[in-house]
Structures are given as structure tokens and as C-alpha cells.
Amino acid sequence: MPHAHPRASEMMFVGKGVVIVGFIDTKSQVFQKTLKQGDVFIVPRGLLHYNLNSGFELATVYSVLSSQNPGMLSISDAMFAPVLSEPMRDLMKNLFSRSKLGTNQIKNVTSFRC
């Protein structure tokens, strides 16, 4: 589920597997990257972000926050109901089409949060 940390940046290191990570900046531009073992991704403080295991096996991701009290803001399903901005529509279309492509082969797609 997309979420944000209002008082911290987040760094994610992929120890195993393949993970799709991304964030949406203050101008509604989506930054998304597919990470493999050994890759690192940094999410700036306060930005809405998400992560998704897109591989065919379990993924291990180590996440570090820049604050002992980062806060956590979850986005409710109401944010994704009928009236979506164009970047959000594109993001949702990409995620849903990606999941439909491999539904026969992928047995465990796990979203994780801090």
C-alpha cells in the first residue's frame, strides 16, 4: 500500500529478489525503478512511495529511515477511486497490467511496508 514518512527519508537495499519501488514527487511525477539484488533506492522525506515484490521468489529488502520517529501516513482506498490524476492512472495501469501478465507464474507477490 502506498505510504509516506513525514519526518524521514527512507533508503531501501535489496538483499535478494526483484522489487519495484517508486515515489510520487510534489508535482505528481512518478519515479519508478526495478531493483535487483544489491541495488539501493532512496525516497525523499514526506513523499508518497510504494514497493512491490515483482520476482518469482521471495524478496529481502532492508529499509533504513533517517529518523527514530519517522511517522507513517497510509493512503486509503478512497485515494484510488474514480477520479484519478493522469500520473496516478498511469501508475495504477502499469501495476495492474504487470500483475496480470504473470499471474500464472507468480505464486507470491508481496507488498511490504516499514
From TrEMBL:
Residues reported in the UniProt entry to bind Mn(2+): 3, 5, 10, 49
Protein's cellular compartments: Secreted, Extracellular space, Apoplast
Record has Transmembrane helix as a keyword: no
Binding site for oxalate: 5, 10
Residues in Cupin type-1 domain copies: 2-107
SMART domains given in the database record: Cupin_1
GO cellular component terms, A-Z: apoplast
InterPro entries on file: Cupin_1, Germin, RmlC-like_jellyroll, RmlC_Cupin_sf
Keywords attached to this entry: Apoplast, Manganese, Metal-binding, Secreted
Any one GO MF annotation of this record: manganese ion binding
Superkingdom of the source species: Eukaryota
Family assignment from sequence similarity: Belongs to the germin family.
PANTHER family, per database record: GERMIN-LIKE PROTEIN SUBFAMILY 3 MEMBER 3
Protein name: Germin-like protein
Lineage: Eukaryota, Viridiplantae, Streptophyta, Embryophyta, Tracheophyta
